[in-house]
Task: inverse folding
């Protein structure tokens, strides 16, 4: 492991802040040859008691209640935004302009205009930028990408994916239900993952026809959407996401059908890649062999890993890009990827409003 360290500042101490902080702490234990050792300098949150407790639990040297102190801190070279969507653009652009490498959770922003401004700010600043589409870092998903790149399932005809959760019926007042803070509902939160995986595994989204629905009374954002799309290269795609699928806890599922076979995945069984060569249904491949993606870091075959490990893989990849050992793209999403997903989400909302098929316009 390199003895060079990098100062990390994280905005947000809740769900994503905890997942990212856990990953920074795990990295020195699991990754041999770590390009940079993360030093947890500071974590930011509005509530003093909560952020102080998080700083102590997660192992940060200090905490702040104003994110601007992360931007002005010379000991922080990596700014990681785990805040709500409405707090992605301003702090992240400020961090990039201050010369800090920037990692921002998905969705990059509340809409394509905001996402475009973030991408342009990071590019202007010449810093490394990564958008946290962590499912690219599931071993089974990375193996699928390798199979697809090798052309082993032939010409791709279909990508079909859904992201189903059940918690949307809650009456709690959550930021994810507030349009000003979240931008959209299931579309930007869950649909963004589906769209990103279509782009990562098959191709760019060209046109969409969609329906968007809010089922819960008095809710300002969508609960669900369905879309059909055409992908570059000719494949047909269907995208779906809902927060109102009782029994589905965190079920991100996709299936790809090609001229010489199919691949399939379900996040509720994250170590398995389904494969068919067309003769007799699907086989289940447990992706835990030593030479399977990322598995040399962990345990012997069959000792499965989980959701949290994707953040360890993703952050190690970002540290490698900062150290010049690898590039963020194509295996992690850059802010350009985050922006392109946002353009697709905007096109889905346009189609639902117009009732027409919409071309996705990338600026
Ligand atoms: C809530 O829907 C959520 O936490 C998403 O925001 C995450 O991106 C997803 O990985 C799990 O569910």
Result:
């Amino acid at each position: 492991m390199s003895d060079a360290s990098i100062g990390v500042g994280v905005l947000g101490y809740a769900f994503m802040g905890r997942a990212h902080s856990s990953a920074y702490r795990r990295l020195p234990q699991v990754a041999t040859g770590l390009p940079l050792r993360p030093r947890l300098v500071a974590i930011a949150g509005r509530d003093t008691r909560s952020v102080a407790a998080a700083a102590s639990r997660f192992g940060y040297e200090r905490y702040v209640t104003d994110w601007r102190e992360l931007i002005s801190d010379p000991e922080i070279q990596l700014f990681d935004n785990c805040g709500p969507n409405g707090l992605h653009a301003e702090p992240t652009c400020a961090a990039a302009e201050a010369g800090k490498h920037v990692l921002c959770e998905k969705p990059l922003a509340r809409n394509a205009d905001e996402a475009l401004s973030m991408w342009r700010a990071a590019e202007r600043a010449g810093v490394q930028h990564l958008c946290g589409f962590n499912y690219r870092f599931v071993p089974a998903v990375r193996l699928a990408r390798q199979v697809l790149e090798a052309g082993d399932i032939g010409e791709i005809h279909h990508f079909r994916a859904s992201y189903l959760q059940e918690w949307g019926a809650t009456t709690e007042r959550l930021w994810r239900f507030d349009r000003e803070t979240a931008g959209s509902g299931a579309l930007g939160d869950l649909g963004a993952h589906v769209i990103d995986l279509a782009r990562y595994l098959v191709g760019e989204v060209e046109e969409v026809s969609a329906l968007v629905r809010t089922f819960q009374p008095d809710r300002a954002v969508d609960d669900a959407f369905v879309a059909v799309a055409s992908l570059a290269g000719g494949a047909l795609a269907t995208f779906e996401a809902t927060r109102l699928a009782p029994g589905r806890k965190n079920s991100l599922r996709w299936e790809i059908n090609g001229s010489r076979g199919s691949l399939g995945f379900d996040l509720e069984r994250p170590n398995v890649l389904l494969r068919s060569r067309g003769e007799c249904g699907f086989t289940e491949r447990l992706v835990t062999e030593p030479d399977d993606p990322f598995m040399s870091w962990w345990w012997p075959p069959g000792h499965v890993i989980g959701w949290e490990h994707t953040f360890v893989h993703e952050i190690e990849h970002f540290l490698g890009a900062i150290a010049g050992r690898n590039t963020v793209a194509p295996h992690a999403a850059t802010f350009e990827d985050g922006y392109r997903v946002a353009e697709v989400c905007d096109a889905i909302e346009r189609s639902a409003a117009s009732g027409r098929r919409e071309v996705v316009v990338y600026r």
